[in-house]
Amino acid sequence: MLGVLLYVGIVITYILRMALNVAVIPVGDALKWDDTARGVMLSSFYWGYIVTQVPGGWMAKKYGPKILFGWGVGWASFLTILWPFTRSSFGISLFLRILTGLGEGVTFPAVYHLISQWYPKMEKSTITSVISIAPTLGIVIANGLSPAIINNLRWESIFFLYGGVGIVWSVFWLLLAIDYPSDNSSISLMRPSTEEIQFILDNQEIEEDHSSNISIYKILTTPAYLAIIFNHFSYNWAYYIFASWLPTYLKKQLQFDLDSAGAISMLPYLLMTVVGISSGYFADKLITRNIFSVQVVRKIFQLLGTLLPSMFLVLLSTLPNLSVTTTVAIMFSALATAPFTMAGHSSNFLDITNKYCGLLYSISNAVATIPGIVGVYLTGYILNVSNNNWNIVFLLAASLSFLAAIIFTIFAKGELLDFDDDEKIIKPTN
């Protein structure tokens, strides 16, 4: 039940985030926004999102992930409902999107802290892949439903609907969720059995510890962790650009209408969901059956999720006279193969630390939010000054992905690392 609620909550966070990405087409047309202005508005969410990443990791450890995640989603939902009322003022609309990002910024650090405590080591890849790919389902729902709602009602309706769903979910989460398996102090309507709690605790790599003695020096000088951060950054560069600009690309560059653009843009994310979850499942099988070590498995899946998208993006940028069908097929292949990294760098957080997973994820996600600010805005700027030359956008994403593959292959590790003076290092058995 906890896993289902958690998954639905993550899906909702991305539905809230993506609502504007489809609405920006009719809103931008009505208000005469150029691509640069649209890029500023689309990226503004991440201006707030980056600010609360590291504080979110710290707060998840200090106050518990239940309250943090619930209130983060609730706050973002409430502001999403308010956004249509500010459309007459670009500045106020921008500010509200920044505040929405502030609320959502604490959610993923809370999620990673939660799963580091609730799931045994033999399920790490699977649960991380399922959780990490949940945003993709949010994009599918937002891109699929939003055009139909806009065309049949009004564009404001998507903000009211998505925000209302988020508030209802927040109430259920705060009533049902619990912070830690052995925590008897939280008020909750749902609690696992004694046997379930014992199984979880018996299969954690380190004992539960709520102290906070992490060394910033070790964080900044651990190559394996820095490799995760760069790969996280690279993945998000392409992910945020496509999530923000794909509907616009399909409508304006490939001449699809709004309904078709929304429906077609769902397809790669459905494929991403399948690839991401399957990757985690097969990675866990390879590890638990001692076919490969954790480190080797992480590198295999990371290489698949970085080199294949790079190849497809280069093809998309360099092959001449591509038909619309071929263009869509190559682009969707690039997107669909990227989630192999869910069993790579995304799962690697849980390999190198348990006690500080939420905090280390929050630091990485703060860096990986920069593409949401810079990349989304830069895409709009490039399109404006280059007469809509998407090849520059694609080649830049391909280059970052290729470099990420090299860095991860050289530096990634698969065992617990020492990030403070007290944490006991337990070597993996495989």
TrEMBL record:
CC annotations in GO: plasma membrane
Taxonomic classification: Eukaryota, Amoebozoa, Tubulinea, Elardia, Arcellinida
Sequence similarity: Belongs to the major facilitator superfamily. Organophosphate:Pi antiporter (OPA) (TC 2.A.1.4) family.
Source organism of this protein record: Arcella intermedia
Keywords: Cell membrane, Membrane, Transmembrane, Transmembrane helix
Protein name, entry field: Major facilitator superfamily (MFS) profile domain-containing protein
Keyword Iron: no
MF terms in GO: transmembrane transporter activity
Positions of the Major facilitator superfamily (MFS) profile domain: 2-416
Superkingdom of this protein's organism: Eukaryota
A Pfam family assignment: MFS_1
Transmembrane residue ranges: 5-28, 40-60, 67-86, 92-115, 127-146, 158-178, 224-246, 266-284, 296-316, 322-344, 356-378, 390-411
Topological type in the membrane: Multi-pass membrane protein
Compartment(s) where it occurs, according to its Swiss-Prot or TrEMBL record: Cell membrane
